[in-house]
TrEMBL record:
Species the sequence originates in: Ignicoccus pacificus DSM 13166
Lineage: Archaea, Thermoproteota, Thermoprotei, Desulfurococcales, Desulfurococcaceae
HAMAP family from the UniProt entry: tRNA_methyltr_aTrm56
Region (Disordered): 168-188
Residues binding S-adenosyl-L-methionine: 84, 111-115, 129-136
GO BP: tRNA nucleoside ribose methylation
Compartment(s): Cytoplasm
Name of the protein: tRNA (cytidine(56)-2'-O)-methyltransferase
A GO MF label: tRNA (cytidine(56)-2'-O)-methyltransferase activity
One Gene Ontology CC term in the entry: cytoplasm
PANTHER family, A to Z: TRNA (CYTIDINE(56)-2'-O)-METHYLTRANSFERASE (PTHR42197)
Recorded superkingdom: Archaea
Keywords: Cytoplasm, Methyltransferase, S-adenosyl-L-methionine, Transferase, tRNA processing
Function in brief: Specifically catalyzes the AdoMet-dependent 2'-O-ribose methylation of cytidine at position 56 in tRNAs.
Subunit structure: Homodimer.
């Protein structure tokens, strides 16, 4: 299943940090694409920079100024849509239904401001991660983690320049190219 995240309602003057975190969470928790509406090239460039340094997970990093049109095209092409909202069905019930439907492509809508009613209507599933106000970043992380059953956390990205080595104490960051040369040298 290919997962894409559509961030709608981004307000460039106020949402830079949280929208960047939505993109980073999408990337780290298993999504294959991030689409931003409306366009903000600075956010897209930050995500592309992370992909260059930390390795490639995302196939698509793009924007649209017509997010509802994007959703309509997605559905017309056979994709399914999840809208994360505190008014939706419980995440655990939705995950079971989504897995049973076995969608090949899943678009997850994450709103920044009040989401227009049309998105609720176009969604195949309106999903809540709790029914209390909280961060859309947290909702996306919980949803993706439940969908992938935690397996997304241990994927290895392609082409990483740097890599973190797990450590009980301190920070251990290595040059990925040096680490792979050391591994190759050790096996000769």
């Amino acid at each position: 299943m290919k997962i894409y995240v559509l961030r709608i309602g981004h307000r460039p003057e106020r949402d830079k940090r949280i929208t960047t975190h939505v993109g980073l969470t999408a990337r780290a928790f298993g999504a294959k694409g991030f689409i931003l509406a409306p366009c903000d090239e600075k956010i897209l460039e930050k995500l592309k920079s992370v992909e260059r340094r930390w390795g490639r997970f995302l196939e698509i990093i793009e924007c649209t100024n017509s997010p509802l049109g994007y959703v309509r095209r997605w559905k017309k092409e056979g994709g399914k849509v999840v809208h994360l909202t505190m008014y939706g069905m419980k995440v655990d019930d939705a995950i079971d239904e989504i897995k049973k439907s076995n969608p090949q492509r899943l678009l997850i809508i994450v709103g920044a401001e009040k989401v227009p009613w049309e998105y609720y209507e176009h969604a195949d599933w309106n999903v809540s991660v709790g029914n209390q106000p909280h961060s859309e970043v947290a909702a996306l992380a919980v949803f993706l983690d439940r969908l992938f059953e935690g397996k997304e956390l241990y994927r290895e990205p392609e082409g990483a320049q740097i890599k973190i080595l797990p450590s009980r104490r301190g920070k251990e960051v290595v040059d990925a190219a040096e680490e792979s040369r050391g591994t190759e040298e050790g096996t000769l």
